Amino acid sequence: MNSASQLNLYSVFSRNFPELESVLLTTDAGTVYTYRDAEHYSAQIANYLTELGLKRGDRVSAQVSKSPEALWLYLAVVRAGMVFHPLNIAYTDEELDFFLRDAAPAVLVCDSARSGALQVLCQGLGAPYLCTLDADRGGTLMQGAQQCSVIFDEVATNGSDLAALIYSSGTTGRPKGIMLSHRNLVENISVLVDYWGFGRDDCLLHALPIFHVHGLFVAVGCALMSGGSLRWLREFDAKSVMQNLRHSTAMMGVPTYYTRLLAEPGFTAQHCAPIRLFVSGSAPLLADTFVEFERRTGHRILERYGMTETGMNTSNPLRGERRVGTVGLPLPGVEVRICGADNQILEGKAVGGLQVRGANVFSGYWNMPEKTAADFTPDGFFITGDQACKDEKGYISIVGRSKDMVISGGLNVYPKEIELLLDELSGVKESAVIGLSDADFGEVVAAVVVLVDAASLSEEQVRGVMKARVANFKVPKRVFFVDELPRNAMGKVQKDILRKKYDSKAM
After folding, report:
1. Which of 330, 323, 378, 387 is nearest to 356 (CA)?
2. Does pTM top 0.90 for this prediction?
3. Which helix (H) or strand (E) holds 444?
4. What is the pLDDT of residue 505?
5. Could you give the CA distance from residue 46 to residue 44 in angstroms, rounded to a whole number?
């Protein structure tokens, strides 16, 4: 598909819609929405944003709770040729200051409870509009949209035009805006629908957040592109998931979801009787979880691998061997190679840097051309930063992360971002942030701190300050104080030593 051709993600979705009276979404409260509702509400919001003066390419930032209306907002933005910029609802005002300053949105949509503080922030940044959207449908966005027409002609966009801007913190501490085009999303979702066998008879249990690639593009995308339906849970709750599985045919989740289901004594194969597919991603799935889930339910979880920058790259097969400890085979249309430091392709089972190329790969980082150039090889492969190897059948295993990232409950935490904040604290000489294993979240964030002479800080004080500055999933769950950090001959902190020393002390 030519990236320069006209291509709007919503238009592709709508071509696959079933009869408009067909059910699209059923909430955990039992409220039912149809495809006609999606058409009408997204049209009204698109008209409202257009009447505010927004045009093709303008960014719409959204820090809102998961709700059907939040989904209509996403559809409206791409339908109108604007750029959707979802934000984690846990982000603090300090974190939002950077995201909004960098993305320069024309509109910020937030919960009414935060509108006062964020209105001041928007005024300081020169953002012209702030709208509110609450989980119960309240707020100025829907109030304004209700006055608008339910007819909206999709804006003609090129495949290379941006559909979404997603931020992922970088190892330098500065978050990077990842530019995803209409073509990136259409190509990747289309492949997944086919590879995972989604159709109009499918009902996907959706308990994921929708500020994240997994929940928004992969899960929602597979349902809309196949004309299926969603069982829409506001958040993950094991007992609610168990009740709703009987109404579903598929479920996507992070490994934490599966460990929490297994922690329920009453969870059995009977709950999973209608399910044809369980998918896990966003963090490594432990072999013990895979084996125990199969023992309890008879289902082998399908593990896949993706990134914000690329969407999905590899997957275990729908039909065929799902190999425990692997993320499967390259998806159709995605080239995967394992290279040494000089970009030379490694053969056999050698461990090296994983690189990918395909229509799914993003176009670059927002306002960071140098970083974009550094993360691509001369022949166009994206350097993922993950260390991997492949077995004799071509199945890929992720064995490490050269970018030092911590994945906690499926959410990415970059140590450098947290270290910079810790090092600003009075009394802190230096710090090292690491991930420690955790049965529930996979990993939790921990900090190893060196204090200046005579300084006195407690674990509770450090955690208290950090809670005010970053989202809760980034706050160190443990803080260890040491006289000095271990370093190699080149002066680099040896985090592997710290992980080995403190891993047994994780919460």
Report:
1. 330
2. no
3. strand 442-451
4. 60
5. 5
